[in-house]
Automatic annotation (TrEMBL):
Protein name as annotated: Rubrerythrin
PANTHER family: BLR7895 PROTEIN, RUBRERYTHRIN SUBFAMILY
NCBIfam families, per the entry: FeExpMbfA
Segments forming domain Rubrerythrin diiron-binding: 17-151
Residue ranges crossing the lipid bilayer per the database entry: 273-291, 303-322
Source organism of this protein record: Lutimaribacter saemankumensis
Pfam families assigned to the protein according to its UniProt record, in alphabetical order: Rubrerythrin
Keyword Membrane: yes
Amino acid sequence: MRFFTQRRHFRDLSEQEVLALAISSEEDDARIYRSYAEMLRADFPDTAKIFDGMAAEEDQHRQRLIELHRKRFGDVIPLIRREHVAGYYARRPIWLVENLGIERIREEAEAMERDAEHFYLAAAKRTSDADTRQLLGDLAAAEAGHQTKAGELEAEHLTLDSREAEERASHRQFVLTWVQPGLAGLMDGSVSTLAPIFATAFATHDTWTTFLVGLAASVGAGISMGFTEAASDDGELSGRGSPVKRGIAAGVMTTLGGLGHALPYLIPEFWTATIIAFAVVFIELWAIAWIQNKYMETPFLRATFQVVLGGALVFAAGALIGSG
């Protein structure tokens, strides 16, 4: 119960505390924008300049608030932050946002400005001092206009060619970090598990045994593929991104690729399970060809031929071994 009493409600704050909260919030937002800028500077230098400009705007807001506080209450600013106020808007931690794409980071920044605008509008309603009310109203308008400011900064720093270059770089990074290892995992899980699963199926005609073999093969292959991908390249020289992300993509997709045609063998009737497994294999191979065509720019017919031929050979090997 004590935990809840340690946080104060916004309505219980004095005008001095509201100003202190605004000062600390502006300081935090400026730091966040500068963190975004540093995060993006290497790959998206023009967008980084936009966030540098927005951080400078937040610094100006903080300075105006400090001057008003000094005029009304003196130099000592109470220590009060977002986490001290119940119901006050929170910011997403930087280490969560850094895993998001550039467009998602821009959306996060827009949400920050909307939150700040709402705060200043609520704060302005709670003060009777004319200068304070005017400043808080001005800052609410400034936060609302930050999208315009962002647009001006974008026009200044982000030309059409720059935006296209950043979008290409973002797409390339997405492909290198997620699509390539995920596709490799899906191909490995879908194709490599065909032989043991269907060999077991035709050798035993036991659906439960077949499922257990498929489950073990899929999970084992997923763990192996994930660790292999993560350990093979730290991404610093190749630019392929975080080894953890690539390992997760490869491991998860490998497991799913194998489980797809193992799960039908939870059905007790052998031929029903096998026919459904055939259909799932077809869907898996089609999905692989589609991903290759969409993200790797492989001609669809060539991708289909490669995947179908490889899958057919592995399936035939498993069926022959199992039947023998």
